[in-house]
Amino acid sequence: xxxxxxxxxxxxxxxxxxxxxxxxxxxxxxxxxxxxxxxxxxxxxxxxxxxxxxxxxxxxxxxxxxxxxxxxxxxxxxxxxxxxxxxxxxxxxxxxxxxxxxxxxxxxxxxxxxxxxxxxxxxxxxxxxxxxxxxxxxxxxxxxxxxxxxxxxxxxxxxxxxxxxxxxxxxxxxxxxxxxxxxxxxxxxxxxxxxxxxxxxxxxxxxxxxxxxxxxxxxxxxxxxxxxxxxxxxxxxxxxxxxxxxxxxxxxxxxxxxxxxxxxxxxxxxxxxxxxxxxxxxxxxxxxxxxxxxxxxxxxxxxxxxxxxxxxxxxxxxxxxxxxxxxxxxxxxxxxxxxxxxxxxxxxxxxxxxxxxxxxxxxxxxxxxxxxxxxxxxxxxxxxxxxxxxxxxxxxxxxxxxxxxxxxxxxxxxxxxxxxxxxxxxxxxxxxxxxxxxxxxxxxxxxxxxxxxxxxxxxxxxxxxxxxxxxxxxxxxxxxxxxxxxxxxxxxxxxxxxxxxxxxxxxxxxxxxxxxxxxxxxxxxxxxxxxxxxxxxxxxxxxxxxxxxxxxxxxxxxxxxxxxxxxxxxxxxxxxxxxxxxxxxxxxxxx
Length: 591
Hints:
It contains 21 helices and 17 strands. It is α+β, with helices and mostly antiparallel strands. Strands 8, 9, 10, 13, 14, 15, 16 and 17 form an 8-stranded mixed sheet that branches. Strand 6 and strand 7 form a beta hairpin. It is globular, with a radius of gyration of 27 Å. The mean pLDDT is 93.
């Protein structure tokens, strides 16, 4: 135990109480209808309520944390009180190639063969936290088809109470634009990585690419669902039933009856700004933007601030931000800048005034190359001094480009701002309306707050056959040897030496992963699954691709949560890692 490694900056929160403060919040917001004022009043009320409850428990110094959680788009508000632990130590984790077995090709797929787990231990006052009173026992039997299982976790965000008009806008504009943006950035980063792998490794570009590919796969699945007429028809049926329920009650009809139509009208207004949604995503982001353009933005802010007589401290903060823009090789700056220009040409149209002003009849690649070659802001070493001296004025190639970009960004933001505020207000009212009609029969959208979802261990149809309920170690080794030995893999299916020549004698028929109908979404990774006897049977780590539509509708015909089977974890600990002390503790014989 003395070798357990402290994890710096890691916190573990144990939920100890939930208080419904909806009435108090509603009272604080009563009569405030202007969107910005209402938002500010909500923020102020949340801070006041959280501070008061925190004081009751002794505050942060006593190890307590209060989080305000808004449900049903603001229709309900609760205070979650946590006991926070800051001494958390790593006990054991498998090799990356085992926990991430299959890599990106197997992401959002099933059958899977990943032992994606780790063990941490919480300490208090230097000693392991005493959890002997309340804990989930380790299941020796595991799961079989038809078993009820319960997932306990913190799902991130869903859009299941968005209107059909909002989903259609996402399908046709915003999510479509996001996926195009991601595709462009993957192409740019991979092109540079292939060009200069050594520099790419030093910049950790592979992790950035992995993150983008994960987003690509996620939004690809989301868009496939949004384009599925059956799924949209189900959502229309739900919305029609909701509207009918509102219309059937005179009071509800008066207060909420026109909200769905109002939201649809807002989507039409947003549609008039469609070009901006695909053009300005992650603008000036350190990971996805050309450094020369990011520096130009700070140079522009500095110049404007200087002309307006901004305080010296504010100007220095801008210069600090400029100096912190990460270095990028010229070739990478060109690729990322060309990607931004392609975004704009594709979203607004190659013949649009904005694209014409940016490109002037040249290709995005030619424009990017000339700007990186000509602008003093492409060189991190001289950028700060160039801005201070005025050498990076509006005559600089990057500054000229930024000026044209701002002529497109500014009107987009000005038009979108009021629409977004109205959307937020209507969405909150719709959340309250749904609660009025359905109460807790319809769950609120995910908010990273603690949820328990029920499900059943179940196979499903795919590719003309059925996906098995569990996968086994046999499949792990088959996947490894069929790819690596066959020369078709590039590392995703490699196994470390201890797995090729295990020191023990693992039973290859032991289950590794299993699927269930539990509701899973981003944020649920790491959620424990327990059976009806509150025994730990699995650890959720992914969904299949059919489950990605769960972002806006929960279906159980083919959508599945994918979990690590506790039997596979125990077999690996026992026969591959020879972790006898941990095995004994999990089975109840340790402290």
